[in-house]
């Protein structure tokens, strides 16, 4: 079997030697480290996706709150306007009550 080698690459030790065993053990450790690194990257990517989703939801809620705040301000203005219209009507109602009482008294006197 002909093994083609890249420049600067050292040939693998002959099978069965102690160096080959150490190299295989190092390859196993390297592969485990790579697997853990890839798993950490995948978890980080998922956290970034989740963070983006939460940020989008938060921004939507802020927009909703601003809209509701505007609506509340408009409703407060309407309530103030209604109160300004109601107060004179209540005063008129009191005056009508007084006039009615006076008319009743006059009616009884007659």
From TrEMBL:
Protein name: ICE1 protein
PANTHER family: LITTLE ELONGATION COMPLEX SUBUNIT 1, PLATELET-ACTIVATING FACTOR ACETYLHYDROLASE
């Amino acid at each position: 079997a002909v093994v083609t080698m890249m420049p600067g690459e050292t040939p693998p030790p002959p099978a069965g030697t102690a160096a080959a065993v150490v190299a295989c053990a190092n390859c196993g450790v390297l592969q485990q480290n790579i697997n853990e690194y890839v798993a950490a990257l995948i978890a980080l990517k998922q956290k970034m996706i989740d963070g983006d989703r939460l940020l989008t939801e938060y921004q939507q809620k802020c927009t909703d709150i601003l809209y509701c705040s505007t609506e509340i301000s408009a409703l407060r203005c309407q309530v103030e306007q209604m109160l300004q219209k109601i107060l004179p009507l209540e005063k008129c109602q009191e005056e009508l009550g007084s006039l009615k009482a006076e008319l009743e008294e006059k009616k009884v006197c007659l």
